[in-house]
Amino acid sequence: MRYTFNLKTLLLATLLVMPLLFGSIAPVFAQEEAPAAEAAPEEEAGPVDDYLELVESSGAEYAPAFDFFTTSMLWTVIAAALVFIMHLGFATLEAGLTQSKNTVNILFKNCFIISIGLITYALIGFNTHYPGDFNGWIKFGAPLGAGNVDDTWGYGGLSLAMTGYGDFIFQAMFAATAATIVSGAVAERVKLPSFMIFATILVGIAYPVVGSWHWGGGWMGDLNGGNGFKDFAGSAVVHAFGGFAALACVLLLGARKGKYTPEGIKPILGHNMPLATIGVFLLFFGWFGFNGGSVLSAAPGPLGLVFVTTTLAACAGALGAILCSWIVLKKPDLSMTLNGFLAGLVGITANADIVSPAGSMIIGVIAGIIVVLSVIFFDKLKIDDPVGAISVHGVCGIWGILAAAIFEVVPEGGEKQFGIVGQLVGVLAVGAAAFIFSFILFLILKVTIGIRVSEEEEAEGLDIAEHGAPAYNI
Amino acid sequence: MRYTFNLKTLLLATLLVMPLLFGSIAPVFAQEEAPAAEAAPEEEAGPVDDYLELVESSGAEYAPAFDFFTTSMLWTVIAAALVFIMHLGFATLEAGLTQSKNTVNILFKNCFIISIGLITYALIGFNTHYPGDFNGWIKFGAPLGAGNVDDTWGYGGLSLAMTGYGDFIFQAMFAATAATIVSGAVAERVKLPSFMIFATILVGIAYPVVGSWHWGGGWMGDLNGGNGFKDFAGSAVVHAFGGFAALACVLLLGARKGKYTPEGIKPILGHNMPLATIGVFLLFFGWFGFNGGSVLSAAPGPLGLVFVTTTLAACAGALGAILCSWIVLKKPDLSMTLNGFLAGLVGITANADIVSPAGSMIIGVIAGIIVVLSVIFFDKLKIDDPVGAISVHGVCGIWGILAAAIFEVVPEGGEKQFGIVGQLVGVLAVGAAAFIFSFILFLILKVTIGIRVSEEEEAEGLDIAEHGAPAYNI
Amino acid sequence: MRYTFNLKTLLLATLLVMPLLFGSIAPVFAQEEAPAAEAAPEEEAGPVDDYLELVESSGAEYAPAFDFFTTSMLWTVIAAALVFIMHLGFATLEAGLTQSKNTVNILFKNCFIISIGLITYALIGFNTHYPGDFNGWIKFGAPLGAGNVDDTWGYGGLSLAMTGYGDFIFQAMFAATAATIVSGAVAERVKLPSFMIFATILVGIAYPVVGSWHWGGGWMGDLNGGNGFKDFAGSAVVHAFGGFAALACVLLLGARKGKYTPEGIKPILGHNMPLATIGVFLLFFGWFGFNGGSVLSAAPGPLGLVFVTTTLAACAGALGAILCSWIVLKKPDLSMTLNGFLAGLVGITANADIVSPAGSMIIGVIAGIIVVLSVIFFDKLKIDDPVGAISVHGVCGIWGILAAAIFEVVPEGGEKQFGIVGQLVGVLAVGAAAFIFSFILFLILKVTIGIRVSEEEEAEGLDIAEHGAPAYNI
User: Fold this and answer.
1) Under CATH, domain A67-467 is a member of which superfamily?
2) What is the pTM of this model?
3) Residue A463 distance to chain B (closest CA, Å)
4) What is the value of ipTM here, to two decimals?
5) Closest listed residue to residue C333, CA positions, set A104, A3, A451, A196
6) Which chains does chain C touch, 3 or more C-beta pairs < 8 A?
């Protein structure tokens, strides 16, 4: 037997001692805050009793709206779960559209991103994203804590139909998205530790700072003549942010070996189209939470509208991409169709609550056409983006922001709120910030620890080179 | 470099010009209707304020039920999302049960169906499906528009706990199902453009017209002595409709080459059973929305009953299929087990709200047995249905309709509402309509542009032949 | 033609006769109970009318809380659907982490477990799990029936915000989990019929009996000085129960051939890491229902807290496993990362409603470290667990129970409710019961019909040996 008894004993001892060890130090943490007082009701009283007590205690102003608050909060956490599943969508889409020799690496990256994204958002991101009173540009926040907690009205008063934890978890699920978008663009040649450092800083610091300009009450509120920047659920502050970060990284990283040859472009085909399709449908599914949850309540009117516009834009996007790819590429291309869904979804994300169903279809069709042309365009420029992330999230993100101004439905007697110029200023600011921050950070990594695997590792595949295990053994 | 600068410039210019181009024509569409007035609340007022205002303004009759409306509407859109994910279930099930050389084709078809299904349902289907006052047989509707929109009570009054958009999106997710069912049956040899035309017309016209007979207030309301046809969530008007359309298409299309030989039936095995299993579990998951959402509110009693009967029928269906396949085929067959789940689900769909849990288990077991025998039976007849769609949706759809009459729970002091004859008349009418319409339409396509790929293309596989790309590169 | 006309005729006749046959005997079942009286509203009255009537009729005490009840019940059934999808997660995780030649067998087992689990839970489990007044140890219950049914308050009064059917379906989805955990540990060499018998008895009898000690009002209520055993959503009564049942089975079954050789441990790699990753993300997704639904209402405070602690623990678990595996195994291991998510989830399951976000992160990190060490430890002991089920569910289940005592947040002025000793007694009692019951039952199966396939079958793979069909034909 190759393994000594000592190692076995050590492991066993570690397992047994660990709980006791932490038992002695953990109460320090446990006392930090006390959010769970109501969370542990006494056995004899049920939740309905608690509810009645709460309604009574909250006084005349709040009581009638308590049920609305409860339903809205329920929707918020369900929407958070839906956004969570988008990360599986990203993981499978990215894995499906790349080579099988890099699959473990891609899946690992996505597991890491969602994990580090959530944890950093709790430690610093959330209160940086929503800094309260600040200079409009930047204010780093404290970890998620007592100030973010209230079971009912104390957190947001009448202006927010969710608890502090509800607000956190919904926004936290968004946060990792930006890094995930980059992951797809740099796939198949990025060095793992460098990407992990980059992703951590991007999602932990850059994303919430830039996001605070719009959602945190920052300077973007002055755009469009004081009506504010219109970016409903994040075409700019999530998708264009990720897309332009991806562009910066790809420019520094270079194309995969063998893609751009003197004889022309040699497409590197995805290894598993069912996996890619699963990814896109899960992203579509999760987008109901992404956009629907961004209503920030269960208000029936906006909720219905957002579901309809989101769906129709996605479907129109697929049809637009089918049509465009059939004409341009002379065949009905599945991967373009899949990107067409996503293009429509990114395009509607900025404006889902202010356009009509007819408008949403047009936004989607155009997004679907744009994404096909854009993917071809970047390929011509030899900017190698294996999954089309820059086109889907960056270019269509811009389109969504502009579409908000173009397709805004003006109520009778009302007037237009958002203009092309104001919208363009906003999205370019976000894109520039993402690009510059990413370029500098990734450049530092490039000149220090390096950002690209060796040619041998790239040829062998990152699964064996970095993880020592293949994805498939069929 | 093989690509000229001109193409690159043209693409870039197109990308840039497109938004501006549409910016000038789009306002025409944007002004069409103004549903989004309440969707853009002013910054300072939150959703709870809006809610309180709405409750106050809606008057004494409606106010107390507003929370119920809100919760019901929330359930409606969540259910729509669940039904959406069924389309991924169909796509993966169909892909898994067929050969790997046709996988891209199958995935593409499913992407197309959900897209065109949603768009045609918005353009014509919805208001044809729910025509309001009509002759009971057919009335083509206008596109989704102002008449279908109200944030709260104006749409359905006290009789419908959802907004117009909520009603639309839930029903729209159903609509594409019929064409998807056909897709599985004609897989691996159908010509893509013909199928796309067929699917578009089936889902855009035939489905809503036939559906209007039952759900749109049509002639089926006179069945069962005026109690109406009992088809809770669509065993007939969705599943049998799709199953009999599939039967017509398969009869015109013929079997796959090499399946029925002089030496007997040569099974063509599915290429990826994990994919097929993912498909069935996602369909089961989505069925909670399909049946649960068909309660059309969040009323706790019916909702709980429907979840229980739906689940027990599916599970009993799997057990019935396991038992039956083990006896008949001498082995525990996975694909039969998977079809057993679906058989149980189709069987309970007509009656989930009027049977007991015990009844639902019996309905499921019988459906699971039926589907195994039916799959074998159609194979004997040389009717080649790669995924068993005709058996699962057509045959078990009939069974579900009859089961409504057989297992209806009659409340104490009440009397039986639904009879075998009335139910049979209804489901045969639906099946006949689907069959005849599909037969004629597909026949026209056959004699014009053709419905079947060439023998060479079938042998090579549709992925390369029609799409120029394989599904796997492992 | 090899098939005679007689068989064909027989099949057709069977299909046709079956509905009629059952039509004559079924009404016996249908009359058993009448739960669906309100489930079939008259056509003219809509759900809102029904609601108003119900509110009026339920009297002063219940009326104000009716909306809370409705929302809570909606959450309960949605949570049940989320827990359902965990079974797809288990199926794909287990299939992905094992060899491709046993994939059909694994998928079949998982289809069977969910089916038989639901059905037995309806027939005996539910009312054994929640026996009402009993001796604290065991009382077998009747099938799901009239006593479990009420549309609103009659079932649980003010102490439970769900109907009887809602209670049933949520708990039923949990039940099959225990057997599923075992399935992973015995994969690749267990004899199918033996496993099916074992799983049926485990899930139908052992699980609800042991569960009744805690959730059914049994003896565990006396632990912790009368405060009761703290196991919020089942780290012990679901996960440790399954983990220790798995340990017993593996000890009786022995390791897979070729894993432990005189030359050392030869890892048997999983055949499909994307499948395994899909599994873990779906389990994470479903856990929002598992833990979130265990709030047993839509109360906003606890719901938000549970979502946050569950998510942070899972993410911290993955990070802990990445760190630990990188140090110990010298590489960032994907399968360890995946198990890290699950470890964190199992660890938080006992205590998600009484710890702080900071506490949940620590619980998760430790769980992630524990699972890596534990997997290595059991491998050293030559206890062959292909998916790490004993470590994930058994060992981390214990950790979660202890963590409840360690990280419990004590409200200001309150006092600690749960102690290490009381928690340890509880979890060891559950583990011992699961182990002993499983050991005896599996031993009986071993000496009677056998529990292990032949060496030839194991080498060939269970797919061909037991099911006659491979999983892949790519």
Assistant:
1) Ammonium transporter AmtB like domains (1.10.3430.10)
2) 0.91
3) 13
4) 0.90
5) A104
6) A, B
